[in-house]
Amino acid sequence: MRIAYCWRCKKDVPMLEEREFRKIWAMLAVADQASLNIPHGQDPAVDKLLEPILDAYADLTGVRISDLAGIMHHRLSLFGPPCKGCGKLLRTAKAAKCFMCGKAK
């Protein structure tokens, strides 16, 4: 886990390294399979399946979030290297410039 700036959230957040993300991904796959047995429209049951995933993220990062979207996009491998100008991660590995400070890659 590493703290880095997220351009979507517009703040520094814990970013998962790949081995940490794989642990969360495996838990999500199990929850997804279990959710197939829940009748459509019963959201509290699905929320109960997701709770261990949110708990695992909190254990790894020390930050409690309420939805999976944050976990899915706070993954270091989705971002590029740090900008040589401002130090924030580039939006993608293929980014030609930093959208925070404008410095070319």
In short:
With 105 residues, this protein is mainly α.
Low-confidence stretches: none
| Portion in helices | 40-55%
Distance between the termini: 25 Å
Give me the strand/helix succession.
Answer: EEHHH
Structural class: mainly alpha
| Mean pLDDT across every amino acid position | 86
Q: Summarize the main sheet.
A: 2 strands, antiparallel
Query: How would you name the oligomeric state of the polypeptide chains in this document?
Result: single chain
Structure commentary:
There is one protein chain. By secondary structure, this protein is mainly alpha-helical. The chain has one domain (2-78). Helix content is 41%, strand content 10%. It has 3 helices and 2 strands. It has a two-stranded antiparallel sheet. Helix 1 (18-35) runs antiparallel to helix 2 (43-61). It is elongated, with a radius of gyration of 16 Å. 12% of the residues are buried.
What's the topology here?
Blueprint: E1 2-6, E2 11-15, H1 18-35, H2 43-61, H3 68-73
Helix pairs in contact: 1-2
Key words describing this protein structure:
single chain; 105 residues; two-stranded antiparallel sheet; elongated
